[in-house]
Amino acid sequence: MMRTSSLVILLVTVAVGIGLFMVKYRVQDLEDQLVDLNREIARDRESIRVLRAEWSHLNEPARIRSLAGRYLGMEPVPVSNVASREEIDQQIPARPQKSDTEALGNDAPNSRKEKVP
After folding, report:
1. Four-residue CA torsion sign, 59, 65, 67, 71
2. Residue-wise pLDDT tens for the chain (117 aa)?
3. Fewer CB within 10 Å of terminal CB in the chain, N or C?
4. Contact status, residue 57 vs residue 63, Cβ threshold 8 Å
5. Distance of CA 57 to CAs 53, 64, 65, 95, Å?
Protein backbone atom coordinates (compact mmCIF):
# COMPACT_ATOMS: atom_id res chain seq x y z
CA MET A 1 0.00 0.00 0.00
CA MET A 2 2.75 2.34 0.91
CA ARG A 3 4.59 1.61 -2.27
CA THR A 4 1.59 2.24 -4.49
CA SER A 5 0.80 5.59 -2.90
CA SER A 6 4.47 6.57 -2.98
CA LEU A 7 4.62 5.64 -6.65
CA VAL A 8 1.51 7.66 -7.45
CA ILE A 9 2.84 10.67 -5.53
CA LEU A 10 6.17 10.37 -7.36
CA LEU A 11 4.46 10.22 -10.76
CA VAL A 12 2.22 13.21 -9.95
CA THR A 13 5.28 15.17 -8.76
CA VAL A 14 7.18 14.37 -11.96
CA ALA A 15 4.16 15.32 -14.09
CA VAL A 16 3.74 18.63 -12.23
CA GLY A 17 7.49 19.30 -12.57
CA ILE A 18 7.40 18.67 -16.33
CA GLY A 19 4.28 20.83 -16.66
CA LEU A 20 5.90 23.70 -14.75
CA PHE A 21 9.04 23.33 -16.85
CA MET A 22 7.01 23.60 -20.06
CA VAL A 23 4.99 26.57 -18.75
CA LYS A 24 8.19 28.35 -17.68
CA TYR A 25 9.74 28.15 -21.15
CA ARG A 26 6.49 29.08 -22.84
CA VAL A 27 6.28 32.20 -20.64
CA GLN A 28 9.90 33.05 -21.49
CA ASP A 29 9.12 32.75 -25.21
CA LEU A 30 6.10 35.03 -24.80
CA GLU A 31 8.20 37.55 -22.87
CA ASP A 32 10.78 37.53 -25.68
CA GLN A 33 8.00 38.15 -28.20
CA LEU A 34 6.70 41.00 -26.05
CA VAL A 35 10.16 42.59 -25.88
CA ASP A 36 10.50 42.30 -29.67
CA LEU A 37 7.08 43.86 -30.21
CA ASN A 38 7.90 46.73 -27.85
CA ARG A 39 11.15 47.37 -29.74
CA GLU A 40 9.26 47.35 -33.04
CA ILE A 41 6.67 49.78 -31.64
CA ALA A 42 9.46 52.10 -30.47
CA ARG A 43 11.09 51.96 -33.94
CA ASP A 44 7.76 52.68 -35.62
CA ARG A 45 7.08 55.63 -33.30
CA GLU A 46 10.52 57.03 -34.06
CA SER A 47 9.89 56.60 -37.79
CA ILE A 48 6.55 58.37 -37.46
CA ARG A 49 8.25 61.23 -35.61
CA VAL A 50 10.85 61.55 -38.39
CA LEU A 51 8.19 61.41 -41.11
CA ARG A 52 6.14 64.12 -39.38
CA ALA A 53 9.21 66.34 -39.18
CA GLU A 54 9.92 65.76 -42.88
CA TRP A 55 6.27 66.44 -43.75
CA SER A 56 6.25 69.73 -41.86
CA HIS A 57 9.48 70.74 -43.61
CA LEU A 58 8.14 69.80 -47.05
CA ASN A 59 4.90 71.74 -46.47
CA GLU A 60 6.47 75.00 -45.33
CA PRO A 61 4.74 77.81 -47.25
CA ALA A 62 8.00 79.64 -47.96
CA ARG A 63 9.57 76.50 -49.42
CA ILE A 64 6.52 75.73 -51.57
CA ARG A 65 6.43 79.34 -52.77
CA SER A 66 10.10 79.24 -53.83
CA LEU A 67 9.66 75.86 -55.59
CA ALA A 68 6.54 77.08 -57.39
CA GLY A 69 8.44 80.14 -58.60
CA ARG A 70 11.51 78.15 -59.61
CA TYR A 71 9.91 75.18 -61.37
CA LEU A 72 6.42 76.32 -62.35
CA GLY A 73 7.02 79.99 -63.00
CA MET A 74 4.28 80.88 -60.52
CA GLU A 75 4.29 84.18 -58.68
CA PRO A 76 1.88 85.75 -56.23
CA VAL A 77 -1.09 87.46 -57.84
CA PRO A 78 -0.62 91.25 -57.81
CA VAL A 79 -3.36 93.24 -56.11
CA SER A 80 -4.10 95.05 -59.35
CA ASN A 81 -5.29 91.73 -60.86
CA VAL A 82 -7.81 91.11 -58.09
CA ALA A 83 -11.33 92.35 -58.82
CA SER A 84 -14.31 92.76 -56.55
CA ARG A 85 -17.63 91.00 -57.08
CA GLU A 86 -19.26 94.23 -58.29
CA GLU A 87 -16.57 94.76 -60.95
CA ILE A 88 -17.06 91.22 -62.24
CA ASP A 89 -20.85 91.61 -62.31
CA GLN A 90 -20.49 94.82 -64.36
CA GLN A 91 -18.30 93.11 -66.98
CA ILE A 92 -20.59 90.09 -67.50
CA PRO A 93 -23.47 90.79 -69.88
CA ALA A 94 -26.95 90.13 -68.54
CA ARG A 95 -28.52 86.85 -69.65
CA PRO A 96 -31.86 87.18 -71.43
CA GLN A 97 -34.78 85.76 -69.48
CA LYS A 98 -36.53 82.75 -71.03
CA SER A 99 -40.10 81.71 -70.43
CA ASP A 100 -40.85 78.30 -68.91
CA THR A 101 -41.76 76.70 -72.26
CA GLU A 102 -38.58 77.94 -73.91
CA ALA A 103 -36.53 76.65 -71.01
CA LEU A 104 -37.93 73.13 -71.53
CA GLY A 105 -37.23 73.16 -75.26
CA ASN A 106 -39.46 72.35 -78.19
CA ASP A 107 -39.24 68.58 -77.97
CA ALA A 108 -39.79 68.26 -74.21
CA PRO A 109 -43.35 66.86 -74.51
CA ASN A 110 -42.17 64.38 -77.17
CA SER A 111 -39.08 63.30 -75.26
CA ARG A 112 -40.92 60.45 -73.53
CA LYS A 113 -41.91 58.78 -76.76
CA GLU A 114 -39.69 56.08 -78.11
CA LYS A 115 -37.99 56.81 -81.36
CA VAL A 116 -38.53 54.10 -83.95
CA PRO A 117 -35.85 53.78 -86.63
Report:
1. positive
2. 678 889 999 999 999 999 999 999 999 999 999 999 999 999 999 999 999 999 999 999 999 999 998 999 888 888 888 888 888 888 888 778 877 666 566 555 555 555 555
3. C
4. yes
5. 6, 10, 13, 49
